[in-house]
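TICKET: design request
STATUS: open
ATTACHED STRUCTURE:
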């Protein structure tokens, strides 16, 4: 009986710890990402720093909260690799009903690392939490994208 209890306690722990032996990082950890569906560039950064001639986009981590009829500024930035000196155009895709962004297609110029954009919610903007896809495209090379959250509430 004591042996059964001991096995009942040890067996789940062994199974849990053994799961990562065959698939470190999860079952799809070593599979390449599909650039067409994810919009991510093919050369991703690992470790410290940014590889030469590439960039990473930085979007707000927290939800940008807007009240209907309100305008709010948001800063979007990129981290440039050692030899990356291109302009990067931003595209905000399909925005939620009643939300506008100005400028509509901002550019982070080659000597800069960020740009400020203004989100404005119309008085009848759709309430709730929304996801906005942001695509950053350099003049030459692959685009990268990310998501940011916008929450719209009543005034």
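STATUS: resolved
RESOLUTION: sequence designed for all positions
ATTACHED SEQUENCE:
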């Amino acid at each position: 009986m004591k042996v059964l209890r001991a096995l009942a306690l040890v067996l789940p722990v062994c199974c849990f710890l053994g799961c990562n032996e065959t698939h470190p990082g999860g079952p799809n950890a070593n599979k390449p990402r599909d650039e067409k569906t994810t919009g991510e560039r093919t050369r991703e950064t690992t470790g410290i720093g940014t590889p030469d001639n590439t960039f990473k986009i930085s979007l707000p981590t927290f939800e940008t909260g807007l009240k209907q009829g309100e305008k709010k500024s948001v800063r979007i930035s990129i981290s440039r690799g050692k030899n990356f000196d291109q302009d990067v155009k931003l595209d905000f895709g399909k925005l939620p009903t009643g939300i506008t962004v100005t400028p509509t297609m901002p550019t982070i110029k080659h000597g800069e690392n960020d740009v400020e954009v203004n989100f404005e919610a119309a008085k009848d903007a759709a309430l709730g939490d929304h996801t906005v896809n942001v695509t950053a495209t350099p003049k030459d090379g692959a685009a990268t994208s990310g998501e940011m959250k916008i929450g719209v509430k009543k005034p």
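CLOSING REMARK: Confidence is low (pLDDT under 50) at residues 11-47. The radius of gyration is 22 Å.
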